[in-house]
Design goal:
The protein has 359 residues and is an alpha/beta fold. It contains 13 helices and 13 strands. The longest helix is centred in the middle third of the chain and has 17 residues.
C-alpha cells in the first residue's frame, strides 16, 4: 500500500549548477508520479524546467548551512516522507525521514588523474559520508553499481538499485538549418568539457583518416572551456586539420540541441562513463554513433552503436567509416532500442526505491 500511496518528497538539488546533473535532475522530476507532493531545493539563479505542480524552494547563503540546516528544517516543516539527494554529496545530519541518494558514477575514484586533489578529497569525504548515511542508493547503470561495490565492498549490506536514465527528452530537438551549416552538409560532433572525452584522441583519428585518404567529415567539438579552446585549435592546426575542425565553447541549451540534432555522426570515445547519455541521445535521434568498449556505453547502446576495437586513435579511425556506412535500417534499430529508455521509467524506478524505505 505504501508503494501506491502518494508521498511527499523533498528533493535536495542544491548541487545542481547546470551541465549533465541539471539535465538528469530536470528530466527525472519531469517524469515523476503526478500524485506525489514534490518540493525541490535549489540555489538561487539555477533554473530547471519543472512541472508546475512541484514547489521550488530557492535557498541562498553558504552551501553547508543550506545542506545541514535548511534542508532538515524543510523536511520537518513540510512533513516530508523522504528526502532524495541528486548526488551522494547531500545532507549528512539527522533527518526526520529516510534519505535516498543517486550515484551517477565513481569516476573520481576510477580515474583519479582526471581530477584535482581538492576535488578528489571533497568527493571522497562527502560521498563516503553520504553512502553511510543513506537508507538506499540509486545508481544510473549496472556498471556504476558494480564499480561502487568494487571500490566500497562494505556497501554490499546496503540497498543499491539501478534506475537507467531516459532519452526521450531529445524527441523534437530541431536540427541546424542549411544557412547555419546544417541542411545537406554532414558533420561529426565530439565533446570536450571533461578529460574522459579524449579530444586529443579524436584529433589524432581525424589526422589518420585525412592522411590515409579516408575523407573524414567536418568535425565540430563543443563544450570546451575558454582556456582550452586556443590549445585545441593549435593542436588541430599542427595536425593539418584547421579546415575541417571547428572548436566551440559551452553552448546555451537551445543552441546545443540544434548543434547536436544536426550532426550526422556523434563521436564519443570516452574512457569512462557512468551511463553515457550522449550516446543514447544520438541513437534516439537516429544519428550514427561511435563509442569505446566501455562497459556503461555497451550496456546503454545494447551493441547497436559502432564500437571501437580498441582504445586508441587508430581504433577510432577504423570505426568512423564503419559508422558512416550504417544503413537506415541499422539506425532505425538504434532508435527503437533507445526508445525504451524513458524518464518516466527512470522516475518510477527511483520512486520505488524511495517508497521501499517507508515500509
Amino acid at each position: 500500500a505504501r508503494y501506491r500511496a502518494a508521498v511527499r518528497v523533498l528533493v535536495n538539488a542544491l548541487p545542481v549548477r547546470g551541465t549533465s546533473l541539471g539535465v538528469v535532475t530536470e528530466n527525472l522530476l519531469g517524469g515523476w508520479d503526478e500524485a506525489d507532493d514534490v518540493h525541490v531545493v535549489l540555489r538561487p539563479g539555477v533554473e530547471l524546467e519543472l512541472p508546475e505542480r512541484m514547489t521550488v524552494h530557492p535557498v541562498g547563503g553558504q552551501r553547508v548551512v543550506a545542506m545541514e540546516r535548511t534542508v532538515p528544517e524543510l523536511c520537518r516543516r513540510l512533513g516530508a516522507d523522504a528526502m532524495l539527494g541528486v548526488t551522494p554529496a547531500t545532507t549528512i545530519g539527522p533527518l526526520p525521514c529516510p534519505r535516498v541518494i543517486i550515484s551517477l558514477d565513481v569516476r573520481h575514484e576510477m580515474r583519479p588523474h582526471q581530477f584535482s586533489y581538492r576535488t578528489r578529497l571533497l568527493r571522497g569525504v562527502s560521498y563516503g559520508i553520504g553512502y553511510r548515511r543513506a537508507d538506499a542508493i540509486v545508481t544510473i547503470s549496472h556498471r556504476t553499481r558494480e564499480d561502487l561495490l568494487r571500490v566500497h565492498p562494505w556497501l554490499r549490506r546496503q540497498t543499491i538499485t539501478v534506475a537507467q536514465l531516459g532519452a526521450d527528452h531529445v524527441v523534437g530537438w530541431p536540427a541546424l538549418g542549411a544557412a547555419e551549416g546544417g541542411g545537406d552538409g554532414e558533420y561529426a560532433l565530439a565533446f570536450g568539457q571533461w578529460g574522459n572525452k579524449n579530444v586529443g584522441l579524436v584529433l589524432d583519428a581525424w589526422a589518420i583518416l585525412q592522411r590515409e585518404g579516408g575523407d573524414p567529415p567536418p568535425l565540430v567539438i563543443v563544450g570546451l572551456p575558454e582556456a582550452d579552446r586556443s590549445r585545441v585549435q593549435a593542436d588541430a592546426a599542427a595536425r593539418g586539420l584547421s579546415k575541417v575542425v571547428t572548436v566551440r565553447p559551452w553552448l546555451e541549451a537551445d543552441e546545443f540541441r540544434r548543434q547536436f540534432a544536426g550532426a550526422s555522426l556523434v563521436v564519443f570515445p570516452s574512457d569512462y562513463e557512468g551511463f553515457g547519455l550522449p550516446a543514447l541521445e544520438a541513437m534516439r535521434l537516429g544519428i550514427a554513433v561511435v563509442v569505446t568498449p566501455d562497459p556503461a556505453l555497451f550496456e546503454v547502446t545494447g551493441g547497436l552503436a559502432t564500437v571501437m576495437d580498441g582504445w586508441d586513435a587508430p581504433a577510432l579511425a577504423r570505426a568512423i567509416p564503419l559508422a558512416r556506412r550504417q544503413s537506415a535500417a541499422d539506425l532505425a534499430r538504434g532508435v527503437q532500442h533507445a526508445s525504451q529508455f524513458t524518464w518516466r521509467r527512470t522516475a518510477a524506478d527511483v520512486r520505488a526505491t524511495l517508497a521501499a524505505t517507508l515500509a
